[in-house]
């Protein structure tokens, strides 16, 4: 039974890792969208362009914050990975004791 629990734990960790990667991809997509909007807006006239450009800068700052949040989450997952490896080692020790 203990072996099955270890396998399930590993699968859920991989799933969380995939979730982080998908969020990272969506961040890159938003970054590209901002670039496209900037190009389109540059066609518009002066004052309107400045207002929209500053709005984009604020949006980019927000995206950077989200990116650092993703990095923090990845670090947390790294810690969980270490914890999983520790459990794996403990399980090995238990096996030897049994």
Any chance you could write out the topology, listing elements then pairs?
Blueprint: H1 2-41, H2 46-97
Helix pairs in contact: 1-2
Radius of gyration over all CA atoms, rounded: 22 Å
Give the structural class. Answer: mainly alpha
Shape: elongated
Rounded mean pLDDT score: 57
**Total number of helices:** 2
Helix content: over 70%
User: Ends: how far apart?
Assistant: 14 Å
Q: Identify low-pLDDT runs.
A: 39-45
- Major sheet description: none
Strand content: under 5%
The number of E-state strands comes to 0
The H-and-E topology, N to C, reads as: HH
Region (Disordered): 1-38
Biased composition (Basic and acidic residues): 1-36
């Amino acid at each position: 039974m203990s072996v099955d629990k270890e396998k399930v734990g590993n699968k859920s960790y991989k799933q969380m890792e995939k979730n982080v990667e998908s969020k990272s991809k969506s961040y890159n997509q938003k970054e590209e969208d901002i670039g496209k909007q900037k190009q389109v807006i540059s066609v518009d006239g002066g004052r309107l362009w400045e207002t929209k450009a500053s709005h984009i800068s604020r949006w980019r700052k927000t995206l950077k914050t989200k990116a650092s949040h993703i990095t923090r989450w990845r670090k947390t997952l790294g810690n969980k990975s270490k914890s999983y490896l520790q459990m794996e080692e403990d399980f090995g020790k238990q096996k030897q004791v049994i």
